[in-house]
Amino acid sequence: MTRGSPQMRRLANHLMVADAAARAISMTGAATAFPVIETLLPKLGALMGKGGFRALLCRALALARAEVSWLCALRVNADGVLEGWEMSRAQLTHAAFMDGRVAMLAQLLGLLEAFVGPSVMPRILDDIWPRTPGQDTALHQDFLT
Known about the structure:
Largest sheet: 2 strands, antiparallel
Mean pLDDT: 82
Radius of gyration: 15 Å
Shape: globular
Strand content: under 5%
Number of helices: 5
Distance between the termini: 25 Å
Low-confidence stretches: none
Strand order of the largest sheet: 1-2
Number of strands: 2
């Protein structure tokens, strides 16, 4: 079993919190299990194409399934969106559901870093989650060093 690195798991947790806060402030976003991944989709789709993003997401899902069994119920559709989580969500505790979300995102971030390199990864995340006024670095920067 290849578990997402502790660094990527911390970054995944952090991005989930930051993205939830941004969505709460803007009052946008439909109910979804993987909002950070859906936030990444447009940027990464532009960078590597829809097929490239879908391939990366499929590989991340395969790796995360080895960590968290309920992820076996998921599939990646043609648009690069994870489907099948609704049934699993109803049967899981909040902690188990969150563990699957973190595992999935950590694997995706690890693959992305391997694909684009550690120097490009922060720039991609900066474009999506820029620093807020008064910050010296973007919120996620501490997790990538």
